[in-house]
Design goal:
28% of the residues lie in helices and 26% in strands. By secondary structure, the protein is α+β, with helices and mostly antiparallel strands. The C terminus is likely disordered.
């Protein structure tokens, strides 16, 4: 008589979105198909409070870790160490988000940062704003924009095709996730703080969706028709 135990059949992988039970009004409308785009969410001033909303609208969303830092906190029992992770998400077609998560272990910190990045997701515009190119291919940004976070100040300028991403590694990661290929950047401040560096890039990209005042048209190369 054999004492070997029979192995259980592997469980079929379940779809987490199929088992998702929305807790907010926006989540219910997205799951029922009443809201099908991020533009509708912003036009109606809804706030994204569930990461599954973004997973439903953008099933092929990419993510990348741009910074991992060990932080310490003094407590009554001694020093407690944890990971602080910065994650950028995007689909390469006008959607970008950044989030920071903390946890005693690396994997939960990444998941927390990913959830925060999805809930902070925003829109931006791609284009070809360089006077040297004018190819009408969305490989760069439409005009010069500025962004800031903490002490970091970023200026992004459209570049002609073939220039590449002229910036530091963290900036290249953010722009690559955003689907941009040719951008010039000017950085001021403590750019070694990678989390603020990534946030400043996302802040600058977000401003491509804003209307510029007439006094700034000349400096950005946008001419009134």
């Amino acid at each position: 008589m054999s004492n070997r135990r029979k192995r259980r059949a592997p469980r079929a992988e379940s779809d987490p979105l199929a088992e998702w039970i929305p807790k907010t009004h926006l989540g219910k409308m997205v799951k029922e198909g009443h809201v099908n785009s991020l533009e509708e969410i912003f036009l109606n001033n809804y706030v994204i409070r569930e990461a599954e909303i973004v997973d439903t609208l953008f099933p092929e969303l990419r993510q990348e870790v741009v910074d991992v830092t060990m932080v310490q906190r003094q407590s009554d029992s001694g020093q407690q160490k944890s990971f602080r992770v910065t994650v950028v998400v995007g689909n390469g077609e006008g959607v970008i988000g950044v989030g920071i998560g903390k946890a005693p272990e690396f994997v939960p910190a990444v998941r927390s940062a990913e959830v925060r990045a999805k809930m902070n997701i925003t829109l931006f515009r791609r284009g070809c704003g360089s006077w040297e190119c004018r190819c009408n291919d969305p490989h760069s940004i439409p005009f010069q924009v500025k962004g800031n976070s903490g002490s970091v100040n970023i200026t992004l300028r459209p570049a002609p095709k073939g220039t590449g991403l002229v910036t530091a590694d963290v900036g290249k990661t953010v722009l690559r996730i955003a689907g941009l290929h040719d951008v010039w950047s000017i950085t001021k401040g403590r750019s070694r703080t990678s989390s603020n560096f990534a946030k400043a890039f996302v802040d600058a990209l977000t401003k491509t969706y804003h209307m510029l005042p007439p006094q700034e048209w000349q400096s950005t190369g946008v001419v009134e028709s």
